[in-house]
From TrEMBL, chain A:
InterPro entries: CysW_permease (IPR011866), MetI-like (IPR000515), MetI-like_sf (IPR035906), Sulph_transpt2 (IPR005667). Its main location: membrane. SUPFAM superfamilies: MetI-like. It is found in: Cell inner membrane. The keyword Cell inner membrane applies. Residues 57-264 form the ABC transmembrane type-1 domain. The complex is composed of two ATP-binding proteins (CysA), two transmembrane proteins (CysT and CysW) and a solute-binding protein (CysP). The chain crosses the membrane at residues 58-80, 92-118, 130-149, 239-259. It is a multi-pass membrane protein. GO terms for molecular function: ABC-type sulfate transporter activity. The lineage of its organism: Bacteria, Pseudomonadati, Pseudomonadota, Alphaproteobacteria, Rhodospirillales. It comes from the Bacteria. This is Sulfate transport system permease protein CysW. The gene is cysW.
From TrEMBL, chain B:
One of its GO terms (cellular component) is ATP-binding cassette (ABC) transporter complex. It comes from Magnetospirillum molischianum DSM 120. Residues 2-236 form the ABC transporter domain. PROSITE patterns: ABC_TRANSPORTER_1, ABC_TRANSPORTER_2. PANTHER family: SPERMIDINE/PUTRESCINE IMPORT ATP-BINDING PROTEIN POTA, SPERMIDINE_PUTRESCINE IMPORT ATP-BINDING PROTEIN POTA. This is Sulfate/thiosulfate ABC transporter, ATP-binding component.
Length: 277, 349
């Protein structure tokens, strides 16, 4: 690369980038932490261990623990089918996978109200069998799954398409069955893409607000996830409480990113090898 | 003996194979030769079970295998781009066909290791067992792919453009090496190529394909010396194709009179005569000999290529040795006399 821009322009560009980053990423994070710790660490931890806050943390982890594995399964199945086989309706499937990205999360939530609400299609049946979906954990899990299901598939489809079908064909000719081929050839080849998709999916599953807000019913200690809990506390002017939970949410997101970068850095040679050829 | 009978295969509205029948004798190495889109790779993939034919049968050693799954066919396949498992070492790649076997079919670990070592030795890659495919050169990858296919002791080895992705020098070496290997192991093999030199050099039998049909099957010498169709003539090596008029069993090409060759003849009217550049004899001009003028001379190492101009503005490419050129003292503009050692006339073409 040519290095003949004047030092002034170079520094200006770097300063601009850093300034932007600081203004829009570091400053808000710092503000969250500052607000959370505004009345000392005792108040911070008290806010986190408060029963409703604790319930929201558990619920968020539970929802992610269900939604993420389900979407790993779905994402792997969909991308495998799309990248390695030809079938009718393939492009329709691809567009459907993108649907949650293109639809507002509020609509995604409302869809489930239309389906499972008392006036909804399955409302009466569910009531007769005494099954609660809306305003309960199942609804929250469903809405989260819906919103997060493109992440894994979207990450894997281009990767698998780029890698082609020849390795799978080689495995089959050598006597491997379909599932064995998937486990020994396809999966190892996409594991880093899969990890990336899972981390993004997880971050969104824990952070989803809109769709979950519609189906949750905001019952404290029961159906509030962390983002919903933050909003409630904030609306009640409990800034320390709101920002304490928010900081924890931000911390979870940061940890995910750090874990991803650390893995990528440690295994960079192997990742490079998989991308080549 | 490996056979396909009346295979037809479409991809959408494109007819990749059109009623193709072929038998590959045991222990022979057969080349499927043709331009791209001629259906040769499709035929190979149908043999392997990677594609299903629309119609027709695949018969392996006397047993119909059309419906048999690829993994049960006991076939070795070397892919054009090798398709090595990129996350596995060379040794694990070669062992794959053995390690995926189930239960008592799977050899013990020590036996697998021994076979892998023997195969590495066979393909001359003994020191590279622990490498990953990305750390190998093209020629090395090719040999790993071959060792991997041989590990399952296939009854048929299929190779898709085995040398296509290699540079010229490596290609030449691997070509000879593959031929020797085939002779040592006595395998039955089919390989696909669009390179006529490769097919003629390596194969026992050449199958020339065009537009989903087989044009000709024969030994390399037979294919080269007596092509059955104008397509085969054009596809195999350099050839002059000269429009001619057929009359009374003789073909007239602008002053050259040829005795027409049976059996492809018969018929009167227009035709095309095929003459290979080395089948034209250039002589000093003399009475009774057709005449031409040297238009262009190119010296290509030991041979000389001359473009001659026949009466009627017809060009004819000929090949002669440097010795002949000196003897005739040929130069640009020299008049010469011609006679044809061999030519083939196709009526109506």
């Amino acid at each position: 690369m040519r290095r003949d821009e004047s030092p002034l322009i170079r520094w200006l560009l770097i300063a601009l980038a850093l300034g932007f980053l600081g203004l829009f990423l570091v400053l808000p994070l710092a503000a969250v932490l500052a607000q959370a710790l505004g009345k000392g660490t005792d108040a911070y931890f008290a806010a986190l261990t408060q029963p409703d806050a604790w319930a929201s943390i558990r619920l968020t982890l539970l929802v992610a623990a269900i939604a993420v594995p389900v979407n790993i399964g779905f994402g792997l199945a969909a991308s495998w089918a799309i990248a390695k086989f030809d079938f009718r309706g393939k492009s329709l499937l691809i567009s459907l996978i993108d649907l949650p990205f293109s639809v507002s999360p509020v609509i995604s939530g409302l869809v489930f109200v239309l389906l499972f609400g008392l006036q909804g299609w399955f409302g009466e049946t569910l009531r007769d069998h005494n099954i609660r979906v809306l305003f309960a954990v199942p609804g929250i899990v469903l809405a989260t799954m819906f919103v997060t299901f493109p992440f894994v598939a979207r990450e894997l489809i281009p990767l698998m398409e780029e890698q082609g079908r020849e390795e799978e064909e080689a495995a089959i000719v050598l006597g491997a069955g379909g599932f064995k081929t998937f486990l020994t050839v396809t999966l190892p080849n996409v594991k880093w893409g899969l990890l990336h998709g899972v981390l993004l999916c997880n971050a969104r599953a824990m952070g989803e607000f809109g769709a979950v807000s519609v189906v949750s019913g905001h019952i404290r200690g029961l159906t509030n996830t962390m983002p919903l809990h933050v909003e409630i506390l904030y609306n009640e002017y409990d800034f320390v409480g709101a920002f304490a939970v928010a900081s924890l949410l931000a911390l979870l997101a940061l940890l995910t990113l750090v874990a991803k970068s650390a893995l990528e850095w440690r295994l960079r040679d192997e990742i490079a090898a998989l991308r080549q050829s | 003996m490996i056979e396909v009978q009346n295979i037809t295969k479409h991809f959408g509205s494109f007819r990749a194979l059109d009623d193709v029948s072929l038998a590959v004798p045991k222990g022979k190495l057969v080349a499927l030769l043709g331009p791209s889109g001629s259906g040769k790779t499709t035929l190979l993939r149908i043999l392997a079970g990677l594609e299903a034919p629309d119609r027709g049968k695949v018969i392996l050693d006397g047993v119909e295998a059309t419906e048999q799954k690829a993994r049960d066919r006991g076939i070795g396949f070397v892919f054009q781009h090798y398709a090595l498992f990129r996350h596995m070492t060379v040794a694990d790649n070669i062992a794959f066909g053995l390690t995926v076997r189930k239960g008592k079919d799977r050899p013990p670990r020590a036996e697998i290791d021994r076979r892998v070592a023997a195969l590495l030795d066979l393909v001359q890659l003994s020191g590279l067992a622990g490498r990953y495919p990305t750390q190998l050169s093209g020629g090395q990858r090719q040999r790993v792919a071959l060792a991997r296919a041989l590990a399952v002791e296939p009854r048929l080895l299929l190779l898709d453009e085995p040398f296509g992705a290699l540079d010229a020098q490596v290609r030449k070496e691997l070509r000879r090496w593959l031929r020797r290997l085939h002779d040592e192991l006595g395998l039955t093999g089919v390989f696909v190529t669009h390179d006529q030199e490769e097919a003629l050099e390596v194969a026992d039998e050449v199958v020339v394909m065009n537009k989903g049909r087989i044009e000709q099957v024969g030994s390399p010498a037979a294919i080269y010396d007596s092509p059955a169709t104008p397509f085969v003539y054009r596809f195999l090596g350099n050839v002059n194709s000269l429009p001619c008029a057929i009359h009374d069993g003789r073909a007239e090409i602008a002053g050259l009179s040829l005795a027409i060759e049976a059996p492809n003849s018969g018929g009167e009217g227009n035709g095309i005569a095929f003459v290979r550049p080395h089948d034209v004899e250039v002589r000093p001009p003399a009475d009774g000999l057709p005449r031409a003028v040297v238009e262009q001379l190119a010296i290509l190492g030991p041979v000389v290529r001359a473009d001659l101009l026949l009466p009627g503005n017809i060009s004819l490419e000929v090949e002669l040795t440097r010795e002949q050129q000196n003897h005739l003292s040929l130069a640009k503009g020299s008049p010469v006399g011609l006679s044809l050692r061999r030519a083939r006339v196709f009526a109506g073409a």
